[in-house]
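Database export, one record per block. Field names are fixed; values are copied verbatim from the stored entry.
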Amino acid sequence: MTAALIISPDYASHYFPLATLGKALTGRGYQVTVATGPTLEPNVVADGFGYCRLVLGPGSNPGLITEDDQPPGEDQNLAGFFEASRRGMVPTLLYQARHRLNDLLWQPDQVISRLGEIIGRLKPSVVICDQLSFNATAALRALEQPYVGFLPGHPSAVATDVPYGYPPRHPVRLAAASWELAELHEVCRGVAEQFTVRFNEAVARFNPNVDGVEDAFATTSGLLTLVNYPGVLGRSYRLPADCRFIGSAVRPVELSARLREGIITRARTRIYVSLGSFFSTRREILQKLVDAFRQLPVDLILATGVTLPSELNSLPESWIVEPYLPQPALLPHCDLVVTHGGNNTVTEALTAGRPLLVGPLSTDQFAGAADLEQAGFGLVFDPNHDDPGTISDLAERVLGGSAVDEARRLGNELRANPGPELAADLITPLG
């Protein structure tokens, strides 16, 4: 049986789309092994894949995350990150950029050695690696191992015309002063230069015969890089030649009988709300959203994450409110998706054919929110400054506008051309 190796960081948000590709390859006769951290081992085993332990960083996230779940040092970094997110787009992106040198190239010598052992033992005919796991891509480069890259997030991560971490576009609603953006651009450019030096040094320590790269963030495999994003939203970005849009990679999830019955008995407009695994700790935003939608004749399906439902005031009995919900299975039953703009939620909502109201908080969410608004699939709100009345007004505008039909049409296209199968079609000829 042909062997395939998938390399993922120990984060559920990265693993879930990669797992859909693993399932597609299994259906093509591949024996799939996933190399990732110990937190995700139960998920890997439950999905029927082989497991190899590969630690790519000090942090992890099996689905929900708080500062207390992280090792010493990482908890402080996470707390600082959340505080920066309260100050807005540029402070958040500056905080992330300044911590990137230490976060994204963790123990590269150890990773190179371990990955060399795994590849030597498995002898895979194809290796698929998360594009954002830079110590893993450095290892593959040092080992001279061809691989397929998988970009789980927004295509701006590999855009060749802006430094990594700088949003090539952002929503008008989150406008920043020109001097702020200039400072952010300069910081991101400087970090990219320093990071590239460290990346090349790590590779050269193991294999001095490998040429260095010009930009470690934007350098892709050169063989094939799969971009988990709809092409209709991403074609204006300048990407490396090996990049191919696959639309979306949505994991199959079943609804419990209890949730299915709860949905069937509710006939009003349904709005799905989630701030994902990280930002569900921003309880004040969740409360603001609860207050916004209490004003409308709607039922909320609310995933509160690490915020307990009991910590939110005045939740109507007709709403479905739980810490964790099977999101991909619920979205087709909703009329609007309200989110911070994480790429998994965005692509899952669009695959379900649902418009979005996005309140971006970090990283590539700002560019993704601008894409959605400009393409007519939804609107943007400011999660830090818009009040409940403004948010409810924006939601009504989305529900009463053309985004409903535009999202429905895109959903039909994405479901007719599943991303994992498109990816498998591209990978199968490679080995």
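Remark 1: Residues 13 and 344 are 7 Å apart (CA to CA).
Remark 2: The first strand starts at residue 2 and ends at 7.
End of record.
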